[in-house]
Each structure stands twice: as structure tokens, then as C-alpha cells.
Amino acid sequence: MKTREPPFEHFYDLADLSEAGAEMAIRPSAQQRSQLAQWAGVTSVDRFEATVTLRRRSASRFAYDAVLAADIEQSCVVTLEPVRSHIGLNIHRELHVISAAPKFAPAGGEIATAGDEGPEEIEGTRFDLAAPVLEEFLLAIDPYPRAPGVEFVRPPSPEAPPESPFAVLGKLKGKS
Length: 176
Fold this sequence. Notes:
Blueprint: E1 11-13, E2 22-26, H1 30-40, E3 44-56, E4 61-75, E5 82-97, E6 120-122, E7 126-128, H2 130-140, H3 165-175
Parallel strand pairs: 5-6
Antiparallel strand pairs: 1-7, 2-3, 3-4, 4-5
């Protein structure tokens, strides 16, 4: 995967979130879906719709839930025929706004991070709602799509393995 900028962003200031929460839709335009297809390495993105729900847990913690529905087209890795697929995802993240980097690092010199179990730490309240959706979308794309019923068949191996170069040299040495 290339490290290019994402094809679109959808920023929201979490400081503006009310106690009731908020729900936003992310529906990129046709041009943005075309850029998304190029960014994701697929032939086309025919549909990409996400509904993001935000809830305030505390002054610095937020729940991020998203439902993504996308329809894409890729090329079959065996026949190059078009392969259409649907991606449906439910995404959940816990966000924790940190005010600044930790003042002291642990003895090893590295900052300890919470694994997948802990909240995602963000440095400010301005958050790109599209970023988690795009990240999960990329991870859900089949890297080796195949048309229905198509399987990769290895070419048959030759009956006798090819003679090694050392065997040929041994025969030449015996003739002298």
C-alpha cells in the first residue's frame, strides 16, 4: 500500500458534541469515489456510504461507531475478469483526547501504548471521522480477488527434474 494522502476527509470538532451525541453521514461524490478507487488499488468504488455515530463518555473520552456499506470492482487475479464485491462493516473505536505528550518515558526509552484493548489517543478535539472508515475499508478489500468458480492451477511439473549445472560439470570432468 502506498502512503498517499486519503482521497477525502470529514473533520468534526468533538468539543462541539452534545450529551445527546451526533450522527453524520459520509457519502463521497463520484469524483471522490474515483479517487478512492485509485487510492485503494481497485477498479472502481460504485458505492461508499458510512453513518458515523458519536457519543460523549466524559470530557475527554468519546465513542465512535460507524456502519459502512461499499460496493467495489476489482480484477480477478487469475483471469483479469471484473469481480464485484460488497463490503459491510461495523466499526467501533474509543477515543481519548490527550492534552500533551507524556512528560516522562519509561526506562526503555519508548512510550508504552495500550494495545487494541485501550482507547485510541488523539491529540486534539478536531477529529477526521472518515479516517477510521477508510482504514477499515482498506483492510477489508480482498488482496487476491477471484471470479466465481475460478481457481489457480499450477502448471504441471516436468516428469524429470532438469539436470543441475553441477551434474553437467561432473560429466565434463569425467571425459577429460
